[in-house]
């Protein structure tokens, strides 16, 4: 254990920290990865070493950090880690964990511009959402798939998916449903802009603004029980969300009006865009350059390009910088600076070639990584097959030895019986009483059955100890509680724990047993604490809000909110 001494000569003030009270916690890692990924990885390794995070969560967070990296190798590693996690026991049996990992796979595939992979993972997520009954998230994901399909050369099929998602989501009901509707509309706008159908963008962008206005005027009609968006505790988040969504809609309108020749409306929408909080962000400045160019606002467009380049720093080998070079060339040509335009176009062409070569190299690396992973998988399968064959051979040998031992014992016993009969016959002939020798009568007492009767009592006491600890120490409140955690604490095997649960709790699995306890603890909280939010109650008993709602309705036939209202 490390000890930290105070500065100076007085070494008497020495503090030995508790391993659980360090910056190497999951929350600290997740905060750090947003601004310093490499530092987050070091903190993650330390948290794993100190035991502040389990191996499964460590792998998930590592994949999350890698997914945000610009390095192709780390992106590939994120994909491989997530594919391994999908085979983990706790993930196979938990649909919500599958959904979280599929979300991460989708994000990484989008970052890699691996559209085929994105469609693959998104399609799996749709099926998981369907099983969970999460229709809002299902249609949100269908809209994402539709946009990618259009990009992959299937515009009609992709647009059909997006239109169906918009139709399914086009009804006020909850904040999450509103957000999903807005996302689906934005995906259709992206496809229309790619196809040059700018006039059709205007009514769609207006629908986003209308929905936001309706929400602000009737916010009480929108349920706030979503696991994605809930502003009960942070109203400022709602204001930022509305500013972001409204600014994007005005940006879409400004671009559409500019492309259709309506400069007056385009400038009005552009002014509203620039006045928003989101309008000053990096992504917003990238978004608005084509509109400025279309309106002939060349000086403003070049100023925006300068701002983006400044924010990029030394990272200029990317698609955004290539577009900026092309835009600068267009402006230079429009102002008659032909030599400058020629030079900029050459730089644009060279950078585009570098990016293309990099993309091909990334794809080759991806294929190599997958081939290596497949090769390793085949080697593991071969080793497992060899191990199984060896085990079978050993098993057959042991079985033969057992059979030989039984046969040998049988023949020895038969000879012993014949010998005893012969001795008894001799004693009878000699007139000797037929009494068994003392050494043969010893040990013939009835076997002690106390241990067999005591075993159920021991098992019952063990179960009571485990059950009491889970209730009294509120272990159920830990959302990441695993069966192995209980086995480790009480020094028992998974088989023993499963047997105890089946015999004394009537549960077929550990998750079912824990969920039953959580539901029992949630009822008095819902009944006796009306000021406590549904989300807070869910967290207090170890559920996510969505999982709590799903489990509660499955067990009691009503949602937590409906149960509370019935009181």
Query: How is the main sheet built?
Result: 2 strands, antiparallel
Radius of gyration: 35 Å
Head-to-tail CA distance between termini: 53 Å
What's the overall geometry?
elongated
Which structural class best describes the helix and strand composition? mainly alpha
Order of helices and strands: EEHHHHHHHHHHHHHHHHHHHHHHHHH
How confident overall, as mean pLDDT? 79
Low-confidence region ranges: 1-22, 432-453
Strand content: under 5%
The helix count comes to 25
Number-wise, the strands total: 2
Indicate the percent of residues in helices: over 70%
Describe how the helices and strands are arranged.
Layout: E1 4-5, E2 14-15, H1 26-32, H2 37-50, H3 55-67, H4 72-85, H5 89-92, H6 95-111, H7 115-132, H8 135-151, H9 155-169, H10 175-194, H11 201-217, H12 235-259, H13 263-275, H14 282-294, H15 298-312, H16 319-334, H17 338-430, H18 438-441, H19 450-472, H20 483-490, H21 494-505, H22 510-528, H23 534-540, H24 545-556, H25 560-566
Antiparallel strand pairs: 1-2
Helix pairs in contact: 1-2, 2-3, 3-4, 3-6, 4-6, 4-17, 6-7, 7-8, 8-9, 8-10, 9-10, 10-11, 10-12, 11-12, 12-13, 12-14, 14-15, 15-16, 16-17, 19-21
């Amino acid at each position: 254990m490390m000890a930290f001494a105070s500065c100076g000569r007085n070494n008497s003030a020495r503090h030995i920290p508790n391993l659980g009270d360090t910056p190497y916690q999951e929350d600290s890692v997740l905060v750090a990865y947003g601004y310093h990924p490499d530092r987050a990885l070091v903190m993650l390794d330390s948290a794993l070493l100190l035991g502040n995070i389990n191996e499964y969560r460590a792998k998930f967070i590592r994949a999350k950090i890698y997914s945000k990296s610009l390095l192709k190798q780390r992106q590939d590693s994120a994909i491989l880690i997530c594919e391994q996690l999908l085979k983990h026991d706790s993930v196979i049996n938990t649909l919500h964990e599958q959904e979280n990992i599929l979300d991460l796979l989708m994000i990484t595939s989008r970052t890699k511009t691996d559209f085929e992979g994105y469609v693959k993972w998104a399609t799996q997520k749709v099926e998981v959402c369907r099983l969970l009954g999460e229709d809002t998230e299902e249609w949100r994901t269908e809209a994402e798939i539709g946009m990618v399909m259009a990009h992959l050369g299937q515009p009609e099929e992709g647009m059909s998916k997006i239109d169906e998602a918009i139709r399914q989501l086009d009804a006020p009901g909850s904040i999450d449903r509103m957000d999903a509707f807005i996302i689906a509309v934005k995906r259709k706008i992206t496809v229309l802009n790619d196809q040059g159908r700018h006039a059709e963008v205007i009514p769609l962008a207006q629908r986003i603004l209308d929905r936001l206005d309706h929400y602000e005027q009737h916010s009480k009609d929108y349920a706030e029980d979503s696991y994605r968006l809930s502003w009960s505790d942070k109203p400022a988040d709602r204001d930022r969300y509305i500013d972001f969504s409204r600014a994007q809609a005005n940006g879409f309108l400004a671009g559409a009006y500019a492309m259709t020749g309506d400069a007056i409306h385009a400038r009005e929408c552009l002014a509203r865009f620039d006045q928003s909080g989101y309008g000053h962000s990096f992504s917003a400045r990238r978004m608005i350059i084509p509109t400025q160019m279309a309106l002939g606002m060349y000086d403003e467009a070049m100023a925006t390009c300068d701002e983006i380049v400044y924010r990029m720093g030394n990272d200029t080998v990317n698609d955004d910088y290539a577009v900026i070079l092309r835009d600068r060339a267009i402006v230079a040509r429009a102002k008659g600076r032909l030599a400058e335009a020629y030079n900029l176009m050459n730089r644009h062409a060279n950078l585009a070639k570098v990016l293309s070569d990099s993309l091909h190299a990334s794809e080759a690396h991806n294929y190599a990584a997958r081939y290596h992973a497949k090769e390793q998988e085949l080697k593991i399968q071969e080793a497992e097959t060899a191990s199984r064959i060896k085990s079978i051979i050993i098993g057959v040998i042991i079985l033969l030895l057992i059979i030989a031992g039984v046969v040998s014992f049988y023949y020895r016993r038969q000879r012993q019986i014949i010998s005893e009969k012969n001795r008894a016959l001799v004693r009878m002939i000699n007139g000797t009483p037929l009494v068994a020798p003392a050494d043969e009568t010893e040990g013939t007492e009835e076997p002690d059955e106390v241990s067999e009767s005591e075993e159920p009592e021991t098992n019952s006491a063990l179960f009571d100890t485990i059950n009491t600890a889970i209730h009294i120490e509120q272990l159920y409140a830990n959302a990441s509680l695993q069966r192995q955690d209980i086995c480790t604490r009480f020094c028992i095997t998974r088989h023993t724990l499963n047997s105890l649960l089946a015999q004394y709790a009537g549960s077929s699995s550990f998750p079912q047993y824990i969920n039953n306890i959580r539901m029992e603890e949630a009822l008095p909280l819902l009944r006796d604490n009306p000021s406590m939010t549904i989300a807070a109650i869910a967290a207090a008993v170890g559920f996510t809000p969505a999982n709590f709602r799903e489990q509660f309705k499955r067990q009691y036939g009503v949602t937590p909110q409906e149960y509370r209202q019935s009181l």
